Amino acid sequence: MSVSKFIDELLDKFYKMKPFYNADNPEDLMGQLVIGLSPHTSGGVLARIIGYTNANAEYAHPYFHAAKRRNSDGDEDCVMLLVDALLNFSHSFLPEKRGGLMDAPLVLTTRINPNEIDKEAHNVDVCSEYPLELYEAASRYAEPKEIEQLIDSVSKRIGKEGQYENFGFTHNTEHINLGPTTSLYKRLNDMTDKLDAQLNLHSKIRAVDASDATSRIIDNHFLPDMYGNLRKFATQQVRCTKCNKKYRRIPLAGVCTNQLNGGICGHNLTLTVHEGSVKKYLEKTKEICENYNVGHYVKQQISVVENAINSTFQNDRIKKCRIDDFM
């Protein structure tokens, strides 16, 4: 509503045109076109407002989410009014640096072809009930491929009229907002709290191997993050605290040598990547490594990255030692 009023005022006072939305209440925006855009992408997808929800979520067709490169697993997302995107977009607004083209609708998909979206959306069941054979196969732990042909799914409708219509479902619901209106991931602000909640859930579910799941978190997230930040620290630039000029190497003068108004800036230089960002996950990684008994290989990887971090930030010449350190 606020954005629509801003757009109407912009059209009226700046462009000398008639207001477009004229919305006095949320219902007045029903049917208006919007653009869905996921973070770190540059391809928007056209959609239409068909309702509102009190949930901190976006309800839409699986095709819409797949076209935006999202699979509805809690990722951040955004929706913008179409006129806002068309009126207030220009390549001249975008940063020239790498990554500047992300998070902007450089292209727009106006019609979704189900055959061109992520194949994950093709696995959606669209039958109204499951056959008895499904439950019989489940009781003997059969492979999914054995009963795949018995289940009606999107993949079987690609290229046919049924790819867009007559999607069935197995259970009715009284209200779409009966579940949590805000995910726990959104409510927990600190990454450590989010991790603790996830690991706590792992330990409660019998179908989850907590040790294996923890090893995957460390191997796929924490270790690459620490190695990456360590590399960034070693290859970083330095920045002037006044004029913001960046240097690939520290000048011999030890201060900023940028020419300003006929003179040298001369202000101090600061790092662009700091020690804290490199070490932020190290202690937490070591803690969960011990609590969830991860494998020896993962423990050795943690030891290697810890040694690399210590060798970077600790000076052995001024390290204070006690006699028992040598015993």
How would you characterize the overall build of this protein?
- There is one protein chain.
- It is built from 11 helices and 9 strands.
- It is α+β, with helices and mostly antiparallel strands and 327 residues long.
- It folds into 3 domains: 2-123, no CATH class; 126-169, no CATH class; 191-314, no CATH class.
- It has a 4-stranded mixed β-sheet with strand order 3-1-2-4. It has a 3-stranded antiparallel β-sheet with strand order 6-5-9, with no helix packed on it. A two-stranded antiparallel ribbon has the order 7-8.
- α8 (210-234) packs antiparallel against α10 (282-291).
Radius of gyration, Cα only, in angstroms? 27 Å
How are the strands of the biggest sheet laid out side by side?
Answer: 3-1-2-4
Domain count, please report it.
3
Low-confidence stretches: none
Structure annotation, total helices: 11
Total count of strands: 9
End-to-end span in angstroms? 71 Å
- The helicity comes to 25-40%
> Which secondary-structure class do the elements indicate?
alpha+beta
The mean pLDDT is: 89
Largest sheet: 4 strands, mixed
Give the H and E element order. Answer: HEEHEHEHHHHHEEEEEHHH
- What portion of the residues fall into strands of 2 or more residues? 5-15%
Shape label: flat
